[in-house]
Design brief:
- By secondary structure, this protein is α/β, with parallel strands linked by helices.
- It has helices at 41-58, 72-84, 97-109, 206-214, 248-264, 266-287, 314-326, 353-371, and strands at 65-70, 90-94, 115-119, 136-140, 142-143, 148-149, 164-167, 184-188, 199-204, 228-229, 232-233, 291-293, 305-310, 343-346.
- It has a seven-stranded mixed β-sheet, sandwiched between helices. The chain has a three-stranded antiparallel β-sheet with strand order 12-13-14, with helices on one face.
- β5 (142-143) and β6 form a beta hairpin.
- It is globular.
- The chain starts with 40 loop residues before the first helix and ends with a helix.
- The mean pLDDT is 98.
Amino acid sequence: MEKPAVRPRVPHFSSGPCAKRPGYDVANLDVSALGRSHRSALGKKLLGLACSETARILGLPEGYRVGIVPASDTGAMEMAMWSLLGPRGVDVLGWETFGLTWVKDLRDQLKLGDLNVYTAPYGALPDLSQVHFARDVVFAWNGTTSGVCVPGGDWIAADRQGLTLCDATSAAFSMDLPWDKLDVTTFSWQKALGGEAAHGMLVLSPRAVERLESHTPPWPMPKIFRLTSGGKLMESIFVGDTINTPSMLCVADYLDALAWADQLGGVPALTARSRASLKVIEDFVATHPWAHFLAQTEATRSWTSVCLTLDATPEQVKAITRLLEAEGVAYDIGSYKDAPPGLRIWCGATVEASDVHALMAWLAWGYAQVCG
């Protein structure tokens, strides 16, 4: 098989940090806050803008708060669990690496006594009908390392009594989230918008705020986890007064990504771009019987973190990924270390469908070279 004639213009298909937006140029960032305190009027203005523009572009309901917190999506999720859980029993779902991390946190670190754990192997979802919404519920919207997402929000009770804590790090800005059913939502800048890493976003509903102000956690709370003072929400966090020092260069980068998303048309346009890339891979899988989606059903197939298995040994899969990287056509597409051997191709909105199309031709070539 001859080498394809067309290469991806941008060979960055990593699932985090993800590809920068089309047309990105670091020289165009507003770096006026570099070297300035994040507590200065300018620093607070830009951090506050990152919060308010996130809320506006996502279309958050009135009363929802957005804050910038330390340690990426992991920090945001752990801050929420440590701060909010305890008054009710908890149901937690895990079907891939990060959801299973929340299972371990709740079972082994917080040691919650009234805990129901629902798990499924990579490629599948737990039985969502088993979840009890009189309890608090912890889950990931999209399994970044398995390519499996929940099929919308109909399974979440509108009249829930407990809180829903949703890890949406590879779903926010690329999937239509039912905000009225999500009390805590977390994500990070380096996923769907291709921002820089290390900063987390925490979205709280009024119900979550009420819990924070009525519940005192029984365990020690590190400073970077504390969201209340004197029994009241620290509102300043949600207008740009961060708990610890953020990178103002990363803030400038995130504001650039938000402006691009807004100009493009917001979440619907971003979702359409992701789905277009998924369609390219779906067409490829339909005509290449040696490639398969890890997700077992189409209804739960992610269109951001697209995970494939191949009719190949683990060593052959690694050889294919090394070959494509050496050719400069695909970087960082090997499956996550805990997942079944295969490929993970990021198809978030910053990736061009035309680049995915070019990659598929090279994948067929690489498979032929390694597997015959």
